Each structure stands twice: as C-alpha cells, then as structure tokens.
Amino acid sequence: MQKLLSYMRAACQKYNLIENGDRIAVAVSGGKDSLALLAALARMKSFYPEKYEIVAVTVDMRFGNKDGDFSPIKELCDKLGVEYHIRSTDLARLIFEVRNEKNPCSLCAKMRRGAIHNAALELGCNKVALGHHLDDIAETFVMNLFIGASLDCFMPVTYLSRKQITVIRPMIFARESDCARVARKEQLPVIKSKCPADKTTEREETKLFLSSLEKKYGNVRKKILEAMQKKEINGY
C-alpha cells in the first residue's frame, strides 16, 4: 500500500488533482484497480495536506438482466467509512442485446462514464476519480497510434465544461501490478467481471504485445510515459 500511496501522492501534487474541499466520486467497478484506488484514497485522507471527501459509486450494468451483487464492496465501504451508492442501468442489455455491438468497449466505456458523471453530480461531487494506471496509459497510447494514427491519450486531469465536473486519475504513476499487490495484501473484495467481451478485446491484445516487448526492451510502459512527459503530450 505504501508504494501505491507514494505514486498517488506524487501524481496528485504534480498535476494538482486534489484541492481543499473536494468531494470526489470514486468510480468502483469491483475490479482490482478501482478497489485499490478506493482503499488508497481513503487511507490518503489521513495525511494528505488538502482535505477532501470521497464517495464510492458503482454503475451496475445488470448482466443477464439481473442486479449485480455488490454487497462485498458495501462491506468494504462500511469498513473504510465511505458512502457507497449503486446506480442500476440497462447498459448490458442495450449494448449486447439491443445494439449487438461487435466492438462494444468504446461505447460501453462512454456510457458508463456518463452514468458516473451524472451520479457524481447528483451526489454533490465536483470531481470523479478513475482507476487508470501507467499500464492503461501505455496501452491507450499504443492503441491510438496503431488504430487511430494519432499521438493521443487520456489526460491526468480533465475538466468537463458541459457537466461542470473534473475527472482525475490519481494512479497514473502506478503499475497494474501495484494495484494487484494492494488488492491481494489488503484482501479487497475483487468481483470477477461478467462482461462477455472480457479478455477478448483490442486492449487485451495490446497488453500482451507490450508485455512481449518488455521481455527485450525492459520497462516499455514506463518509457512510453516518460516520452509523453518529454513532449508534454496531453498535459503529461
């Protein structure tokens, strides 16, 4: 946990992600990354110089047209002293049945983000924290390069003027392995994804591609971030 907290504090201070008085909605899917973010933000409150509140929010996709069981996350939030809210949707039915999307990830991410943003506003939050980490940065950059022919990636902090809400990514300096380690050592209640596209996406292929490069060239993901910082791509 200390390593993750160190990475998060560095990112928050470098990019001014958290300000005094912030009320932050933490997007919690039930995966290891979002749970590690939630646990770390709850822990960081005790020593971070800026005072802030956090609220955990889960968007229930309702796979199989059934409500998801997020009771283990509720128990974790009770333990952490964090408000927990679930927003029920029909996103799974819309994406996989009504629209029958062949490449559902982009639309799914967009619609889930919209639901999170709306929930955050309803709960009086001025910021939304997402669990993207350094691996996600590298994968997104490579996917945009190869598929979209652009040098582009999500930003550490983004103000959405239409929603009047700010999106922050406190874990951008941490590796996915750091999140996995925290989830294991803190015994976080990771919920297995029920998404039918899980582990079969272009992102998964990119993850494997970068892992193969790292066998020869070392920490390729970190080098991509460092290159982005040198060229100040998307605010890095």
How would you characterize the overall build of this protein?
This protein has nine helices and six strands. The chain is an alpha/beta fold and 236 residues long. The chain has a single domain (2-235), classed as 3-Layer(aba) Sandwich (Rossmann fold), CATH 3.40.50. A six-stranded mixed sheet has the order 3-2-1-4-6-5, sandwiched between helices. A hairpin with a 4-residue loop joins strand 5 (157-160) and strand 6 (165-168). It starts with a helix and ends in a 5-residue tail after the last helix. The mean pLDDT is 94.
Summary?
By secondary structure, this protein is an alpha/beta fold.
CATH C-level category: Alpha Beta
Mean pLDDT: 94
How many domains, as an integer?
1
Using the 3D structure, state the CATH architecture. Answer: 3-Layer(aba) Sandwich
Protein traits:
6 strands, 236 residues, Rossmann fold, alpha/beta, six-stranded mixed sheet
Task: Provide the fold topology.
Elements: H1 2-15, E1 22-27, H2 32-44, E2 52-60, H3 71-80, E3 83-88, H4 91-98, H5 105-122, E4 127-129, H6 134-148, E5 157-160, E6 165-168, H7 176-185, H8 202-217, H9 220-231
Parallel strand pairs: 1-2, 1-4, 2-3, 4-6
Antiparallel strand pairs: 5-6
Helix pairs in contact: 1-2, 2-7, 6-8, 6-9
